[in-house]
Amino acid sequence: MTHEEHHAAKTLGIGKAIAVLTSGGDAQGMNAAVRAVVRVGIFTGARVFFVHEGYQGLVDGGDHIREATWESVSMMLQLGGTVIGSARCKDFREREGRLRAAHNLVKRGITNLCVIGGDGSLTGADTFRSEWSDLLSDLQKAGKITAEEATKSSYLNIVGLVGSIDNDFCGTDMTIGTDSALHRIIEIVDAITTTAQSHQRTFVLEVMGRHCGYLALVTSLSCGADWVFIPECPPDDDWEEHLCRRLSETRTRGSRLNIIIVAEGAIDKNGKPITSEEIKELVVKRLGYDTRVTVLGHVQRGGTPSAFDRILGSRMGVEAVMALLEGTPDTPACVVSLSGNQAVRLPLMECVQVTKDVTKAMNDRKFDEAMKLRGRSFMNNWEVYKLLAHIRPPVSKTSATMHTVAVMNVGAPAAGMNAAVRSTVRIGLIQGNRVLVVHDGFEGLAKGQIEEAGWSYVGGWTGQGGSKLGTKRTLPKKSFEQISANITKFNIQGLIIIGGFEAYTGGLELMEGRKQFDELCIPFVVIPATVSNNVPGSDFSVGADTALNTICTTCDRIKQSAAGTKRRVFIIETMGGYCGYLATMAGLAAGADAAYIFEEPFTIRDLQANVEHLVQKMKTTVKRGLVLRNEKCNENYTTDFIFNLYSEEGKGIFDSRKNVLGHMQQVGKGGSPTPFDRNFATKMGAKAMNWMSGKIKESYRNGRIFANTPDSGCVLGMRKRALVFQPVTELKDQTDFDHRIPKEQWWLKLRPILKILAKYEIDLDTTEHAHLEHISRKRSGETSI
Question: 751, 4, 620, 784: which is closest to 318 by C-alpha?
Fold first, then answer.
């Protein structure tokens, strides 16, 4: 990349103006997006305007359209909803309203519009854009604008960000607000489960989502619900029978609780609504169970945004500014969205079209088509849900077709481990396998702490933090003999290892050991689960999202606790070993001024520059500073050292405080895993067990299992947009074993965003930009999560 290009980002916006508005229903994380648009816009040299109250503000003009400053978006990252207001607007639907809106923009020289809202809001923006030149000529004829003004504003660029808790927009894996809504729902489900356990009750929970079943579906996966009703897949005609049979089966297996999740748009095969009251009456009448209905309503839109939504909003905001400023009269209006962990640009109208196609398919009762149009991620969720919920636990099969698979946890506990064990065990049983659980990792495997797990062994595990099987960091090498003896004794034919870096290094040791011990020639797969997110072969590991949210919540509370006091800077130490993932992502999510990590070496000069920078910032209206430090970023520049430095240099301007977060990060809020970790772990477990059954069949030689190829020992990881199995031996070259981290880490590319949002004049590398893709490509050939 040339030096000229580097500077291009910093001058890209000179002479341009951007307006940002939020429209339609509010969603948590909109503020993060607004903040990013404002700050990145200002960074590029553009002027940025807030439009208050959505399109209504665009039509009314005047004080509703105000220029934004750097400081005007400070402290809004952790607020739910949208600070600049949103309104449903009738005027903008009429041409007269759009004419007034165009007039307001032209008069201020604004030709770039960033719209954050749902599909309705984005469609409105596209109409506005297509009429732009006609509107201008009308305004010119009426003498409201001059010819010169018309030429200056000859075309309008539009970029949309999808902010909607429903996740009903095609082409985007996750819309801004969806993850936070899931957080709210799961908090409530967890609270309800405890009361229902006390009384043996059935709960019917109605969640939002309009005509999209995403929230309901993921909720039911995340809490192990007995049944879910979603609009895209109406139940069979005899569903009443089936439902009651399911509920009574769960009860006879010893469960004291039934949960039924209903999407607000749920319908039967004839398109007749299925209401939560109706379901309650059915259960009470047929089974006589004590049944309660809870309609969640607007609670789901409320509360602070989750870490995921803040990062999503911030990343999308940056991408939106780039897309606007690089736009030409020929580029179509686009939507910036996330696919896996990649930012992508998609033509706005293509997405709107597919979203409309779903509605049409549902109105025409073509439910299979509606399901397909919702995309891979939705389909995968549905497949896993059906497997885990709808099949009766199998009656034991003959030993001829039955395989024995063992499941274990290795390393430090991470939230979501139990969810992974649960889905692994249950999918294994559904496939007719015998599933063993190993306590205390490789040590337990050597000592024979192994037992068989039945269907209800893992009941209710999804929402529990830590590791119920027990986990240790011990590696297998020194106990190969005992381990081999137990593999033979228990007839273990495959091993599923859920854990962190030790699970991966343990896997490498098992591969080595195969040369000496034939017993170790069985397939194994590693599911990455660690708060540090440092396992090679995967962009995410189970447990990291929960840790991130815990750090975030703590930072919010710490920032809030200082409200009303004089200026203050907090230095916070995060976990992660040598891996800077938590410090960097928490920095993005909590709005840190700096995040010190091992992967990006820093000197005393950098520390000095950071302190200077904060001193300058604190001379404005900014009152809070936040500095994150990864625990092993530098052995000499310790947390105490950095705290002392900031205390000394900030004298008379700000106070400093320090906080070491420690093991709190492993347990998460209330000890329970976030919806993302529950869902991710559940899908990883299911996928690992499916792979395992295939591999065992492949490795059958002369009446026994013999697996000796590199691809019979894998890490299952999420790479960019797909879940992939990678031989552990192939990942060796990609690993820095001294520091227990992968040599290349995708999230390092997000570091410049962190710095720009903290007002550093740095060079933004724009080479990694998302290019415009087409929506149809996304739907084939990839297993997104």
Answer: 751
DSSP string, 200-228: TEEEEEEE--TT--HHHHHHHHHHT-SEE
Tell me the per-residue pLDDT of 405-439, one tens digit each, with 9 for 90 and over: 999 999 999 999 999 999 999 999 999 999 999 99
Residue 166 marked in a binding site: yes
pLDDT of residue 781: 35
Has 432 been labeled as part of a binding site? no
Long-range contacts of 476-482 (CB under 8 A, 24+ apart): 476/442, 476/445, 476/446, 476/506, 476/509, 476/510, 476/513, 477/509, 477/512, 477/513, 479/442, 479/443, 479/445, 479/446, 480/513, 480/516, 480/517, 480/520, 481/517, 482/446, 482/447, 482/448
Buried-state track 136-147, b at ≥16 Cβ within 10 A, e below 16: bebbbeeebbee
Q: CA separation (Å) from 176 to 27, 50, 179, 318?
A: 7, 19, 8, 14
Greater confidence, 297 or 361?
A: 361
Consult the annotation and say whether 339 binds a ligand: no
Contacts of 367 (CB under 8 A, 6+ apart): 232, 233, 234, 361
Which residue in 26, 60, 166, 173 is the catalytic one?
166
pLDDT tens readout for residues 318-353: 999 999 999 988 888 999 988 878 888 999 989 888
| End-to-end CA, the chain | 33
One-letter amino acid of 579: C
pLDDT tens, position by position, 639-697: 999 999 999 999 999 999 999 887 766 665 457 999 999 999 999 999 999 999 999 99
H-type alpha helices, 728-781:
728-731, 751-757
CA pair distance 346, 327, nearest whole angstrom: 13
Nearest-angstrom CA–CA distance, 18 and 67: 10
Q: Is the pLDDT of residue 399 over 70?
A: no
Cα distances (Å, whole numbers) of residue 281 to 147, 163, 262, 299, 635: 68, 36, 14, 25, 64
Q: Are 479 and 442 spatial neighbours (Cβ–Cβ below 8 Å)?
A: yes
Residue 88 counted as an annotated binding residue = yes
Percent of the chain clearing pLDDT 70 (strictly above)? 93
What DSSP state is assigned to residue 467? -
Residue 738 is among the residues annotated as catalytic for this protein: no
The two structure tokens encoding residue 495 = 């091993």
- Give the integer Cα–Cα distance in Å for 745 and 599: 9
- The answer to whether 89 is annotated as binding is yes
pTM of the model: 0.92
Burial of 380 (0-12, 13-18, 19+ CB in 10 A): middle
575 is in an annotated binding site: yes
Span 213-234, mean pLDDT? Answer: 93
- Residue 473 annotated as part of some ligand binding site: yes
